[in-house]
């Protein structure tokens, strides 16, 4: 059973930065892909960024140039560096890991961008 634990969320002012972490209980190298998703109140969950085992990266258009996804296989952790945050980025951010036909999700971490 894979467990994912997100951390790093919080309250930040517009224009600020946060770095989210997603720590896996197992080796992340075994996952076909990992990604960050977010869900704002009243909205559907949406993809933010993904990174594959081979290092291919994909970003939502709304975060391109501001967010960076990365992985540290030695620490079994995936990161999401978020810069130039704006109120529209406010959401619960969740980590997802794809292993074969299974998807695993973390519990999520709240990010609130407000002055």
Description:
This protein is an all-beta fold. The chain has strands at residues 4-7, 10-12, 18-24, 33-39, 46-52, 57-59, 67-72, 77-82, 91-99, 102-105, 109-113. Strands 2, 4, 5, 6, 9, 10 and 11 form a 7-stranded mixed β-sheet that branches. A hairpin with a 4-residue loop joins strand 7 (67-72) and strand 8. The chain is globular. The N and C termini lie far apart (40 Å).
Sum this structure up briefly.
With 115 residues, the protein is mostly beta strands.
Topology of helices and strands:
Blueprint: E1 4-7, E2 10-12, E3 18-24, E4 33-39, E5 46-52, E6 57-59, E7 67-72, E8 77-82, E9 91-99, E10 102-105, E11 109-113
Average pLDDT number:
96
Low-confidence stretches: none
What can be said about the biggest beta sheet?
Answer: 7 strands, mixed
Mind telling me the C-alpha Rg?
A: 13 Å
Query: What is the beta-strand fraction?
Result: over 45%
Helix/strand-derived class? mainly beta
Number of continuous helical runs:
0
Order of helices and strands: EEEEEEEEEEE
Number of β-strand runs: 11
Q: Which overall shape is indicated by the principal axes computed on the Cα atoms?
A: globular
Helix content: under 10%
How far apart are the first and last residues' alpha carbons, in Å? 40 Å
């Amino acid at each position: 059973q894979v467990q994912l634990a997100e951390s790093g969320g919080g309250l930040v002012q517009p224009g600020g930065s946060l770095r989210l972490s997603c720590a896996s209980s197992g080796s992340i190298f075994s996952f076909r892909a990992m990604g960050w998703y977010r869900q704002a109140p009243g909205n559907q969950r949406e993809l933010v960024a993904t990174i594959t085992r081979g290092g291919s990266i994909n970003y939502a258009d709304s975060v391109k140039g501001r967010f960076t996804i990365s992985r540290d296989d030695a620490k079994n952790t995936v990161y999401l560096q978020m810069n130039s945050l704006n109120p529209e980025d406010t959401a619960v951010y969740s980590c997802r890991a794809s292993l074969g036909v299974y998807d695993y999700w973390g519990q999520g971490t709240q990010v609130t961008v407000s002055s």
